[in-house]
Design brief:
single chain; mainly alpha; 3-stranded mixed beta sheet; 3-stranded antiparallel beta sheet; 24 helices; 6 strands
Length: 472
């Protein structure tokens, strides 16, 4: 033990602590220098302070990107698949629609044809070793326009084919009119137009060999056709209208009745036919029938024809007043209640028609100056006042039917400005209005109890109240 102690004191390990500290520091500096020199001769990438796995991934991506760029700048060899699985080599282009899989055992990509019929024609013209030039500028704008034009032409051809097919289908469902006429002719059935039918009916009516029943049947059928404006005007082209007008001179009341029935339908809202009727003497003939003894049914139809002729035709209204038409209507109004209501309705229509025409001409100027001048020459209201229509209309208020009273009240309102002085002096009119006011107040109250928002009797009561207020 003593010898070992002496050895420690003789060697550096046996040096004192104060002498060993500087030596240790010097030794550490030498070792650090040697380690630095060794590192400078090594690959810096092996000792970079980065994640080795991330570095390898980035390197792989750079290589793949570079390979793709090289492939994009060059043409690719087209792989020709078959119906068997084959390995795909790097750099080979895969045809569109091929079936591709990854072989998990070998790690290689394999492909084959997906559908035999779909790609057979595309592969016939391809040869092994042929290159596919991937070029985005392979088609010019002119090529695209030409392809689009061909596409449109194909669509038009397809549309024309569809239209032709549809026409063929319709032809199968329907037959030509000439073919039908031929078939009907074989069956002794004749297809006639409206014009041909009207000509045939007029000939039957005008024939002396036709019986009364045949003439009436012809007029009855003719009325159905002349309701149409074009047919009524066609009646003028072959003189059919004048034949019917002359039928008003017949001694048979039924012929007069149905001839007036046809004329009323033809006159309605048809100015061309109205003008021809005035020139053909229809107005005079109608007034003569109304002024003479005739059956009630005949007078109804004749009055209907007269109303159709006068409405919206101011020249005819002038001629009506000149021929004493108001006197004829006055006798009708005093004859029967049915004719009286129709006469009052006609007068109301003529008064309001002229009033509205003059107002429309002042506000909108839509009425032609010639027609407006004709309306101004129709002195209807002065003629009504002169011929005593104020009293005649007031007396009609005693009719028992509500509809008749409504028409009379409307006409009294239209005549109010012209007949106001006469109405105020007519004590019977005031008593009648007061009586009707009480009656319709009770009926209006019943309407309110029934929950009706707008009542017929309340409207009549309003008209009566307005007249009473004006007469006070």
């Amino acid at each position: 033990m003593e010898a070992y102690s002496r050895f420690l004191t003789m060697t550096p390990w046996g040096l004192s602590l104060s002498r060993m500290t500087p030596l240790g520091m010097l030794l550490g500096l030498l070792m650090a220098s040697c380690f630095t020199i060794c590192l400078s001769h090594q690959n810096p990438k092996e000792f970079a302070l980065t994640n080795p796995e991330k570095s390898r991934t980035k390197e792989t991506e750079r290589k793949e990107t570079k390979a793709k760029e090289e492939l994009d700048t060059e043409v690719l060899e087209v792989f020709h698949p078959t119906h068997e699985w084959q390995a795909l080599q790097p750099g080979q282009a895969v045809p569109v629609g091929s079936h591709v899989r990854l072989n998990l055992q070998t790690g290689a990509r394999e492909l084959k044809l997906q559908y035999k019929d779909k790609f057979q024609n595309n592969l016939k013209g391809s040869k092994k070793g042929k290159r596919l030039d991937i070029n985005t500028n392979a088609y010019t704008s002119q090529d695209l326009k030409s392809a689009l034009a061909k596409l449109k032409e194909g669509a038009e051809k397809e549309s024309s084919k569809e239209d032709k097919a549809r026409q063929d289908e319709v032809k199968q469902l329907f037959r030509p009119i000439e073919e039908l006429k031929k078939d009907f002719a074989e069956l002794n059935v004749v297809i006639e137009t409206d014009m041909q039918i009207m000509v045939r009916l007029i000939n039957k009516f005008n024939s002396s060999s036709s019986s009364l029943e045949e003439k009436i049947a012809a007029l009855f059928d003719l009325e159905y056709y002349v309701h149409q404006m074009d047919n009524a005007q066609d009646l003028l082209s072959f003189g059919g209208l004048q034949v019917v007008i002359n039928g008003l001179n017949s001694t048979e009341p039924l012929v007069k009745e149905y001839a007036a029935f046809v004329l009323g339908a033809a006159f309605s809202s048809n100015p061309k036919v109205q003008v021809e009727a005035i020139e053909g003497g229809a107005l005079q003939k109608l007034l003569v029938i109304l002024a003479t003894e005739q059956p009630l049914a005949t007078k109804k139809k004749v009055l209907f024809a007269l109303c159709s002729l006068l409405r919206h035709f101011p020249y005819a209204q002038q001629q009506f007043l000149k021929l004493g038409g108001l006197q004829v209507l006055r006798s009708l109004a005093q004859d029967t209640e049915v004719l009286a209501v129709r006469v009052v309705t006609l007068l109301y229509d003529l008064i309001t028609e002229k009033m509205f025409a003059e107002e429309a001409a002042e506000l909108t100027r839509e009425t032609s100056p010639e027609k407006l001048q004709q309306y101004r020459q129709v002195h209807l209201l002065p003629s009504l006042l002169e011929q005593g229509w104020c009293a005649i209309t007031a007396n009609l208020l005693a009719l028992p039917e509500h509809n008749a009273r409504e028409k009379v009240l409307q006409t009294l309102g239209a005549l109010l400005a012209t007949c106001l002085d006469h109405f105020r002096q007519d004590a019977q009119l005031s008593r009648t209005l007061a009586s009707l006011q009480v009656e319709y107040q009770a009926l209006a109250a019943l309407e309110l109890q029934d929950g009706e928002d707008v009542g017929y009797f309340r409207e009549l009561l309003g008209s009566i109240n307005s007249l009473l207020q004006e007469l006070r």
